[in-house]
Amino acid sequence: MKNITIQSESTDRSTDDVLSWLHYLAPDAIVNKYFDTCEIRKIKIELSNRESLKIALNETAETYNRAYWYRRGRFVFRSADDKHFLNGVEHKIAGEYLTPLLKFINGNIHSNGINKFSDNEIEKLDMLHACVGLSISIPDTLITDNLGDVKKFLEQHGSIICKPAKNPFINTTVGSASIRFSGPTELITRANVDELPETFIACLFQKYIPKKIEIRSFYLGGQFYSMAIFSQSNPKTQIDFRNYDHQKPNRVVPYTLPVSLRNKLQKLMTRLEMSSGSFDLILTPDNKYFFLEVNPIGQFQWVSRNCNYFLEKLIATHLLK
In the 8-state DSSP scheme, what is residue 56? Predict the structure, then answer.
């Protein structure tokens, strides 16, 4: 009987679709589901020359051959005899001590599956730097906290953009209120650069790349499932298609990446030790491809539905193998 573990968010619709396919394809499969926050109250790791590695979380043994899909969510350690999260100094000490254990567990029980929690720690700069070594074209990039550097960069390229160097979606708590906000991609021109302060928090600036189309490509099992997004003709989505125009949605169609680019991107995934992810790419008017980023937990449902790829069935089948 197949045993599968899925960690995700309770509101993620893509996870619901994968669960439906698992129930349809293998009704007798045991699916262990962890949503939002996976609380770890008890942890046990045994290492020995005589026996294979043993790991138990919350008194449940974890095994190498259990299929695992990390979609979203996080682990939180709680004391075994306390109903409340550790706080203050205790929380800091526990975090410093337990984080290496979490990384070890993550790398050893989640190796047989799709993605892992530590994929979230792969930074955008790591991706861009890896692309340079693999001859994957990226926009010229600058990270600085100085207006003078920005002006020189703008003078060099004529038109640049500013975007977050990390995940643009931020969740935080202020008092009793939960706040979620995002940092958008903004166009910086000679007309508005003087509006910036002399110094600021270090930001990521890139040369603005004109585009024929944007491409979202989902990667799994060595295969790419790509969609072309005609975002350039709409002023609202011209800089970034994620500034969705729900009144006049962008036209999207299935797309096939060239073999040479697919080979390079596959090498990138190997170097980043990622088994799956959603690529954002640009095709310029003179037919050159530029890499923007690859997100291990990016949205793929709209790619699946608009292009009839049935990615949710593909993920379920992959887990059942």
Answer: E
